[in-house]
Amino acid sequence: MVKTTALLIPVALLGVSTVAQAAESRLQVGFGLTTKKINDVDTTLVAPRFDADIGVSDHFGVSAILPLTSLSRSEGEGTFRFGNPYLGGFWSTDFEILSLKVGAGVTLPVASQDTATVEGLANSAVAYTSAQALAGLGDFWLYQPGTMALAVPVQAKLDLALVEIRADATWALLIPTKDYAEVDTTLQLAGEALINIPFVGFGARVQSVWIPTADGDKMQLSVAPVVEAEVGPVFARTMFLINLDGPSGFSFDNGNDKFWGWHLAAGVKF
Prior knowledge:
The chain is mostly beta strands. The protein has a single domain (24-269), classed as monomeric porin ompg (Porin). The chain has helices spanning 2-13, 118-133; strands at 26-38, 41-57, 60-73, 79-82, 86-95, 98-107, 147-160, 163-176, 184-197, 200-210, 219-231, 234-243, 260-269. A twelve-stranded antiparallel β-barrel has the order 1-2-3-5-6-7-8-9-10-11-12-13. The radius of gyration is 19 Å and the shape is globular. It starts with a helix and ends with a strand. The model is unreliable at 1-20 (pLDDT under 50).
């Protein structure tokens, strides 16, 4: 209660009143895509993702994410793997031009390496690391085999009519459930600025993911141009993510571990 009061006081001083309404619900389906040569073999990685936010009362709701990944190669076999499904809850509120959303949840340790064959093990490893890299390591815990994660995502949006500014942050703790996994923690921060015209918005996203427990490079920085469209309750979004530095960039450098990612998503709000 103390934290809520502390937030409402400066908002009230700005002349912004709260708007009482039920938590927004939305269903979204999307995917990330990347292609490259890995060990001189043409490789395509598609990472579908299904998201759901369901409002259950004023300001409160439940969230779920189902992540998948599919790897195909011009030579040899590919693979299809499940990521770690996420289940959680959220609290949200609106202050006219400002909206906030705070969530908390846990992933189920479904993602696992294919240990039946050497090729299967290699392909599953590439499928998971590629799905992480094409998103600039954002929400990488959804594709981390042998782990469950505790995650706390926070989102804020400032709507200034023509311009919309967004910020999001997620802290996560990864807990190993298999011998080959390790304890990890991560903090990701991102900001977006969009210019809105009727039905369409366009702008850019900057994202930083810090993994202090990682070996080698501990931070991934990425940028992406963003285009959105919205007609009534239906919305769509696409962006092209470019990793600027290691471990997954620069995106267009040579190397098996350098990735870009094209993302497309669509859904409905209610």
